[in-house]
Amino acid sequence: MIALAAIAAVTSATVGLGLYGVRLARTTSDLFVASRAVTPWWNAAAISGEYLSAASFLGIAGLQMKLGAAALWLPLGFTGGYVALLLFVAAPLRRFGAYTISDFAEARLGSPRLRLLAASVVLLIAGFYLVPQLKGAGLTLGQVTGAPYWVGVIAVGMIVAGNVASGGMRGITYVQAFQYWTKTFAIALPACLLLIHLGGLPERAAMFGAELPQAGAQGLTVELDAAEPVTFPAETDYAVDGEPAHAESGEEVVLGPGTVTLPPGAVVPVAEGTTAQTGDEWSRPVSDSPRSSPVFVYSLLLATFLGTMGLPHILVRFYTSPDGPAARRTTVRVLGLLALFYGFPAIYGALGRVLVPELYLTGDTDSVVLALPEAAWPGLGGELLGALVAAGAFAAFLSTASGLMVTVAGTVSHDLRRRSPRDFGARRRRFRFAALAGVLPPIVLALVARGLDISVLVGWAFALAASTFCPLLLLGIWWERLTARGAAAGLMTGAVLASAGIFTGLAVEGTHPTVEAVLAQPAVLSVPVAFLVMVAVSLGDRRAARKADPHLLALHAPEGLAG
Amino acid sequence: MSRLPTRLPHEELAQTTAHGGLYLRRLIRSQLMLSVLTLIAFGGLVGSLPLALYLVPSLHDVRPLGVPLPLWLITVPPFPLLVAIGWLFTRRATALEDSFRELVEPPS
């Protein structure tokens, strides 16, 4: 009940601020980029607020609990991405003064068709990124109220679309800044209080030693609503609805529906798709298993490092800085704010392994952050902290999904048609309609994608962004000879290779560990190929390259020069 | 509605000062050098971490406060390092732009 009230409070604060903002949005420039007059600290909090999604709030801890410490490379890559943005993109792109990546592509390379292609890739990436946000919403509402998964997915989808349709970005800058602090407070306070309450990390044997996750001193009782195929890693006596049963080591059993009980100290069976690991295997950030091999880790770091700059909902935020140096200062502040937040998810992943091992059985490791407070601290204390993390998680879905919806609606209403209506009212109506229509495909996909991990889904969005917009931006900004044809070829190659890797990886299992790692995280292959294609096709393009001088000037000349 | 960027008219710079274009290219090159050098420093420090942990698995047995050292190494020191690198880069990049501005604008 308390948790539901907290969620309602965060949601209505978001919607309320959004509605307040709409009164201030008067021009197209307001609607898209908040008139470009936001101070670096506000803007940095807004960027971080928009960036810290379900993947950061729930996904990192969930993946860490499931796969092990290899998941902790994610926060490093998520933050490192802003270093790449700072070094190569932030200031020049802000100076160039286009609203979106599609605007940049058209203005820099002078091809309306390239604009269409870029807009399609924007929609693809935003779609990939929206799905896990909605999945997180379904999971959270289910955890808090026991509502079916689809209720949360549809509710958050509709709230966000409605809010974006009515608010625009003017309101959203302040909403996002507010949500950064909500999220950081909501993840930091419970983590610190739990560590104090427990007196440090409990039962290190299961975390870092030779043991598998075990039922606690009271045994373990899990209610299963549906039949659940699981594997028992060790010989175990258990009971279903009070009927005693026995499983040999390595035996696969379909449990439930019903109440499963394990005696104290029994090794917890694991759901399909999860491998039981000893504490020692689990706590190694790199090892020889496919999901933590060096190839996988480097590919993941590359995708997140280069993908961040290609996330369309993040890039548009840089236009709200007044000039190039302000864009740089904003980015450095973002690095600091993200570093602060990312200190905490790992605590949940580690504690969850010991305190909520039933998630290994149900496979819902993504909800570890939500389930942990009440499991670790029975009573009112745990309930209040549980409400706080649930509210923080909702702040995460709402903010990222809103940012993505603004991008989707902007792209559909502004980029996909050659002509925009002149009249502001008509443009705004079209923007609203696009927001409402654009949310439907991600809702459907989120309903289908329940079994996929949040962090894995987000990892693909990063891989896709790194393989498409990263080469376009880097070469477009720093290399005079890039041509429209080269850019188009590179965009298509990158998008096709990255998606092909992801979908093949889903369909194919049990190949060579390195092959599996590349399919699961294709950036290590698709990014260099996309760069190569872009360069090679541009060099071979016999049509005279557009004279790049004015563009170079617009990108790189410092502000405040007397003309 | 025009979709072209608004700052294009800065072309004047290239035409009014004879050396403007040359200076601009020099600025771009030095900015790019700065970015690449920073990238190498950053990539060298953070990028060598996975390989080092992979090649020296025994680091796992060193446990400050009961937590294996590799976990500390990937969760704590890289973050302040990122902020420091970002801050230093920003200072240098701004300084490069300031000296370009002095070069192009005749003292009045």
Secondary structure layout plus pairing:
The complex is a heterodimer of chains A (563) and B (108).
Chain A: H1 2-22, H2 28-33, H3 40-51, H4 54-67, H5 73-88, H6 90-96, H7 101-109, H8 112-145, H9 149-198, H10 204-208, E1 220-224, E2 228-231, E3 236-240, E4 243-247, E5 252-255, E6 258-262, E7 270-271, H11 279-282, H12 294-307, H13 312-315, H14 324-341, H15 345-355, H16 358-362, H17 368-376, H18 380-415, H19 424-438, H20 440-448, H21 454-478, H22 484-507, H23 513-520, H24 523-540, H25 549-556
Antiparallel strand pairs in A: 1-6, 2-5, 2-7, 3-4, 3-6
Helix pairs in contact in A: 1-9, 1-18, 3-9, 3-14, 4-15, 4-18, 4-21, 5-12, 5-14, 6-14, 6-25, 7-8, 7-21, 8-9, 8-18, 8-20, 8-21, 8-22, 9-18, 9-19, 9-20, 12-21, 12-24, 15-17, 17-18, 18-19, 21-22, 21-24, 22-23, 22-24
Chain B: H1 11-16, H2 20-55, H3 69-75, H4 78-104
Helix pairs in contact in B: 2-4
Protein model, in words:
The complex is a heterodimer of chains A (563) and B (108). With 563 residues, chain A is mainly alpha-helical. Chain A is built from 25 helices and seven strands. Chain A has helices at 2-22, 28-33, 40-51, 54-67, 73-88, 90-96, 101-109, 112-145, 149-198, 204-208, 279-282, 294-307, 312-315, 324-341, 345-355, 358-362, 368-376, 380-415, 424-438, 440-448, 454-478, 484-507, 513-520, 523-540, 549-556, and strands at residues 220-224, 228-231, 236-240, 243-247, 252-255, 258-262, 270-271. In chain A, helix 9 (149-198) packs across helix 19 and helix 17 (368-376) packs antiparallel against helix 18 (380-415). Chain A is globular. Chain A starts with a helix and ends in a 7-residue tail after the last helix. The model of chain A has no long low-confidence stretch (mean pLDDT 84). Helix content of chain B is 70%, strand content 0%. The model of chain B is unreliable at 1-9 (pLDDT under 50). With 108 residues, chain B is mainly α. Chain B has helices at 11-16, 20-55, 69-75, 78-104. In chain B, helix 2 runs antiparallel to helix 4 (78-104). The interface between A and B is large, with 63 and 60 residues.
